[in-house]
Amino acid sequence: MSSFTGETKLSPMAENVTMPMFYTNVLPPSMNLPNECFTESVDLTKKGIERNKFNQHTGDEANPFTCKCERVKSYNLGICADCEADLGPIRLAEEQRRAQDVKDEDAAFFGNSTTTTTEEKVDPVKERREKRKRATQSA
Ligand SMILES: [Zn+2]
Predict the structure, then answer these.
(1) Dist. CA 46 → ligand 1 center (Å)
(2) pLDDT of 73-124, one tens digit each?
(3) How many A from CA of 79 to the centre of ligand 1?
(4) Domain range annotation of the chain
(5) 103 CA to middle of ligand 1, Å?
(6) So what's the pLDDT on residue 2?
(7) Could you give the angle at the alpha carbon of 30 between the alpha carbons of 27 and 48, nearest 5°?
(8) How far apart are CA 18 and CA 68, in angstroms?
(9) Which of 100, 65, 95 shows the shortest CA–CA distance to 83?
């Protein structure tokens, strides 16, 4: 059973029905989790900020730091997410290999599931192409 107070939704038949708590612009940290579980994430974030200052730069002045190009755009794996530099075919191939690893890992996790992602269900380009094909066939 969940021990999150205010979030537990009991059966409608239960006598003590806890109303769900709605958060607006504040999401308070959980009182049930020890802070130690965030230590590694915080350390890695601090190291990342120190390592790649380019994507931490704010303001109107030109960025004085050189981009380390650690992240790529999700829709174009060959372009840096921060400075938008073309990272070349070797990096693109490596990013595609890593993306495929993630997809394979997800597929293995959901291996026996019949659940498909929204992306798999509805491919707007494919849908439009099929619609056009049907329209031209019936005309
Ligand atoms: Zn970059």
Answers:
(1) 19
(2) 999 999 999 999 999 999 999 999 999 999 999 998 876 555 555 545 566 6
(3) 8
(4) 46-54+67-109
(5) 24
(6) 40
(7) 75
(8) 50
(9) 65
